[in-house]
Amino acid sequence: MAAATAQPMGNLPSGLGICTTAPDIFYIPELVFGGLVWILVASTHVKPENPQGWVMYVSVFCFVMTFLWLVIFACGGHKNSGGWATADFVYHFLAALFYLSASVPLASVTIGFSKMEASSKNYKIDIAAVVFSYTATLLYFIHFILSAIRWKSF
């Protein structure tokens, strides 16, 4: 019975199958950690607007796109046309690249804060945002690798 319900690596899942397959199980943690980055950066006092503005853009963009991607896969909208495995692979590569490009400046700004206000509430929130940002980067990168493996199996 278990063998009949298991998804092969070459098929794209739909419905609740996205909660059980290798690359797609990362959608929920990506949403959680991306949302945490969004909330934490939004709750701090923004001194250098540029890096934290980019972090906000990346976290909101990736949160919305990942949610839409999750809804498309859950509703089975990807079954109507081909190329979804390639699109999944490309999106997660870009999301990992975006998050990496946002995590590095966020960490740099936070290190700069450590010299001025190491005991302040904003500094502690920024540290949490950096940790969650790198965690989201790692999750998107793992999803990218597993999506590349699935893409190659098509």
From TrEMBL:
<dbReference type="InterPro" id="IPR013295">
    <property type="entry name" value="MAL"/>
</dbReference>
<keyword id="KW-1133">Transmembrane helix</keyword>
<keyword id="KW-0812">Transmembrane</keyword>
<dbReference type="InterPro" id="IPR050578">
    <property type="entry name" value="MARVEL-CKLF_proteins"/>
</dbReference>
<feature type="transmembrane region" description="Helical">
    <location>
        <begin position="89"/>
        <end position="113"/>
    </location>
</feature>
<feature type="transmembrane region" description="Helical">
    <location>
        <begin position="54"/>
        <end position="74"/>
    </location>
</feature>
<feature type="domain" description="MARVEL">
    <location>
        <begin position="18"/>
        <end position="152"/>
    </location>
</feature>
<dbReference type="Pfam" id="PF01284">
    <property type="entry name" value="MARVEL"/>
</dbReference>
<feature type="transmembrane region" description="Helical">
    <location>
        <begin position="125"/>
        <end position="149"/>
    </location>
</feature>
<protein>
    <recommendedName>
        <fullName>MARVEL domain-containing protein</fullName>
    </recommendedName>
</protein>
<feature type="transmembrane region" description="Helical">
    <location>
        <begin position="25"/>
        <end position="42"/>
    </location>
</feature>
<dbReference type="InterPro" id="IPR008253">
    <property type="entry name" value="Marvel"/>
</dbReference>
<keyword id="KW-0472">Membrane</keyword>
<dbReference type="GO" id="GO:0016020">
    <property type="term" value="C:membrane"/>
</dbReference>
